[in-house]
Amino acid sequence: MLAAMAGIALPASSAFAQQPAASAAAPVAPGTIRIHFRRVQNDTAQWGVYSWDGPARPSSAWITDRFMFTQSDDFGGWVDIPLAPGKTALWFLVTDGSGTKNCGADQGAQLPADVGSRGHEIWLLEGDCSIYTAPPAPSYGSLAQAGAHWLAAGTLAWPGAPASGSYKLYYAANGGLGSGAAGVTGFDGSMDLSLAPLPEAVRAKFPHLAGSTGLALSTPDAAKVAALASAQFAIAQFDAGGKLVQVTSLQTAGMLDEVFAARAADTRLGVSFNGAGVPTFRLWAPTAKSVALDIYPDANAPAASQVPMRFDAATGVWSYTAPSADWTNRAYYTYTVKVLSRWADNTLVTNTVTDPYSVSLNANSARSYLANLDSEQLKPRNWDKHRIPALAHPADISIYELHVRDFSLNDDSVPAARRGKYLAFAERNSRGMRHLQSLQKAGLSHVHLLPVFDIASVNEAGCVSPVIPDAGPASEAQQAAIEAVRDADCFNWGYDPVHYNAPEGSYASNANDGAARVREFREMVQGLHEAGLRVTMDVVYNHTSASQQGQLSTLDKIVPTYYYRLNDKGANLNDSCCADTAAEHTMMAKLMTDSVALWASAYKVDSFRFDIMTFAPLAVMQELQARVNQAAGREIYLYGEGWNFGAVANDQRFVTARQANLFGTGIGSFNDRLRDTVRGGGCCDGGENLISQQGFINGVWYDPNHLARQSRDDALRLADLVRVGLSGTLRDYRFVDRFGSLRSNADIDYFGQRAGYTASPVETINYVEKHDNQTLFDINAFRLPQSTSLADRVRVQNLGAAIVLLSQGIPFIHAGQELLRSKSLDRDSYNAGDWFNRLDYSYASNNFGVGLPSSDKNRDNWGLMTPVLENPLIKPDTRAILAAKEAFEDLLRIRTDSALFRLRSAKDVEERLRFYNTGPDQLPGLVVMHIDGEKPVRYPEARYRSVAVLFNVDKEAKTIAIPELKGRKFKLHQVQVSSTDPVVKTSGYGDADGSFTIPARTAAVFVERGANRGEE
Questions:
Q1: What does R_g of the chain's alpha carbons equal in angstroms?
Q2: Are 636 and 535 in contact, with CB atoms under 8 Å apart?
Q3: Ramachandran region of residue 890, left (φ > 0), alpha (ψ -120 to 50) or beta?
Q4: How far is the first Cα of the chain from the last one, in angstroms, to the nearest whole number?
């Protein structure tokens, strides 16, 4: 805010000309600026001017020191502010006592040269960032905004409106509503509204509006609403004398849900086929004037025909049944929708749009493809008969996160035409598939695919590949070459959905062939299934890449404003990145649920990861869970991001699917507690914190780097958080913390939040690396002392994997984590091209030191990055990469070997898992976990009487005696005995005193044979 200072260019609406003042008590004094401010409710006394540059006495404190509008005239409130000599502009914000700004941006009023002798006046309007030098015509509100809410057919709410005066609802069939001093103009009719408290059911459904002024239509008027739904509406407030006070448009989603969506929710939308393959098209567009179906004979030809669709007034669904099956699996189609749109200045627009339920398209999403997914021609050989790998319980899941293009683009064992494509997964003998098969043999169960639905960010008709210069490990040249084409190249993570139900075309052999992407997506799934791997799909229902009247917008062009979450003025919320969808609305929830059910049934996808899952209501996620399981005929595991933020934070609008609320649902959420504990710091560190905030495995207190200032207590605090993670982050699991107190996981602090939050181990996704943020290798490159040897860096990487793989819960691994993957320190490689996202299954390189990462996200840290990238001790060779891979697979084998690492329930964990070396006198840097396979009863598939796991993160070997474990028959796990790692083999156990000796930077697993026998 204070960055806007004198000398910066001023708004064009701030003019020099001195104008006559509105009536005021006295002329403006020389050297003074008078600021007039009009609010429709005439409540300017609660508002004031915060000004940091221009006044003789600038505001000294935000909000509390303001120049208050204590005077008033016919225009509104006003205040005089004495100016400092020589000033050419006044920089200010107008706010109320809680910091609400009239204009979101800093405002600058230019001062005329003679202000010292004549003074100056400006006028401001509520919700308007313009600065007027003459009194503007009074505004009664903008119909481009929607500050009121239509919550049910007969119920409306207007936040901030007074419970006095009178109100009317106006409508105009073809738009054209306006307002002026004479009142509302351009209407075809109106309905009286009575002041009425919001019904309790409405208050419960819309808690963020519970304090709003309630308004009600009469029963006869409410009954007319369905027939008028395609009109423009506005609500107006009048004072006791019948004079217009304000007018606004309405947010209508609640009304549309009650009047239409409740009856449309069970309708099959998109295209369905009868037994003869004849298609029926259905589109939900309750506010449209008309909808026509456009048919194209192929992907590129002009439209051959257009036919009108029939409207069902009860559901708001438009439909058309084709005369034959001739179009099926041949033709393409769009809809032509005529609709009034607030996004088009409340005018009637004619939009040609693709189907939101498209199952395939031509290149760049221009036309929907008329695909019957049950047709044999859209299935690879043996599709219907191929076997989905078995899964006994969600606790057995382990996940490998992979980008389709990364997987094979650089793999010369894949035919050139298939590199970076779906079909690379059908190449059973490629390096990449052999690598996945090796991981599967060790115990990997699921491959998580980054977005593979239709996305906006890659030009399917012709993307470009930049030429990367041969430059140094910390050169700016590589990223500069990528930046030059960053939005035209072939790479993007893909979190920018266009169509939720269609495969992405850039991964198909021919993006312009609607059939190809369907068949080839299925070949990918089949290839992974035949390799023994289940498939997880990354889905992004919380936003779309475009909205309103944007080129790739679909939902907003069909039912304007309905599918999106809006702010208090009716503008799109963008808490995700782009326009946030509103899954709290019936038909958005339906689209999301129908979509997941389609992928699970028609494409045999086994699991789904939800991007920003918090933005969906918990009830919707639970309904989706049941519906998808039913559609698939098997249990489909769901997980996602449960971060608590944005307009829906803390359940402000509905009970969200955030971490704490998922308790008991069986839906997983990403565990930021374990991530930050192991890595150090937080997700988004910058500056010196990238180096100084060491984590549990990379040096906290026991191996400080040159910027670290952490204490022994920091090391013990992080060890407690590791224990929380190892015990499944269960809310109610208890252990002795670093202070010597018996506490639940929920009582352990994580940045002011409760660390434990799950009801079951399957509700936590344990990870230390994923596509977001720096890779684990890269964060360790920052935080380990720069003198750390390569061998020790590999061991630290393996410790991260060990904590994830041996914790209760679902382990989640970023592709290449097992290969020391680097992105050359990039913190956000979503659009950093193939170069920084390179994945090498030949094991020749981990991609460290290939240049400074993109300036877009990293420039502020380049100075810190340069010496790290140039450090010759860090970059691994093939031997180091293979050592990491072998250690990782050993850990996977150990997890798979015994169900004690995959306990099914909280009760199992609470009864069997114990920590030793706890409390204030613990040996720092060492976490000791014991899991009982015999007590209280023999655990199925435990294979051992018990297991003991010791994590020594210190750079020195440690010996610890645990009296409770003396006299046992512990031996190092056979996998580690047979390991290629000579260090772990030196781990030992002494039965006389229960002592364990663990080498530096090692996770050692001991098994106790006996009645519940393991291998002999």
A1: 32
A2: no
A3: alpha
A4: 70
Specify burial of residue 483 (Cβ count, 10 A radius: 0-12, 13-18, 19+). middle
Burial of 644 (0-12, 13-18, 19+ CB in 10 A): middle
Q: Do the Cβ atoms of 53 and 90 come closer than 8 Å?
A: yes
- Number of C-beta neighbours around residue 299 at 10 A: 18
- Helix 776-783 to helix 790-806 angle (10° resolution) is 130
- Rounded to whole angstroms, the Cα distance separating 426 from 98 reads 60
Averaged over successive runs of 10 residues, the pLDDT of the chain (1016 residues) comes to 32 33 72 96 94 98 96 95 97 96 95 96 94 93 96 97 96 97 96 98 97 98 98 97 96 98 97 98 98 97 92 98 98 98 98 98 98 98 97 98 98 98 98 98 98 98 95 98 96 98 98 98 98 98 98 98 97 97 98 98 98 98 98 98 98 98 98 98 95 98 98 98 98 98 98 97 98 98 98 98 98 98 98 98 98 96 98 98 98 98 98 98 98 97 98 98 97 98 98 98 95 42
DSSP symbol at 683: T
Distance, CA of 883 to CA of 902 (rounded, Å): 26
Report the SS3 class of residue 889: helix
Strands 810-814 and 399-402: parallel
Q: Please state the pTM of the whole predicted model.
A: 0.94
Distance between CA atoms of residues 837 and 831, nearest Å: 9
Beta bridge partners of 317: 284, 312
Alpha carbon distances (Å) from 373 to 36, 271, 335, 587: 64, 10, 21, 23
Omega into 936 within 30° of 0, i.e. cis? Answer: yes
- Residues annotated catalytic, as ranges: 611, 641
Q: Cα dist. 292→80, 306, 362, 584 in Å?
A: 60, 6, 20, 29
Q: How far is CA 490 from CA 289, 486, 487, 514, in A?
A: 40, 9, 8, 20
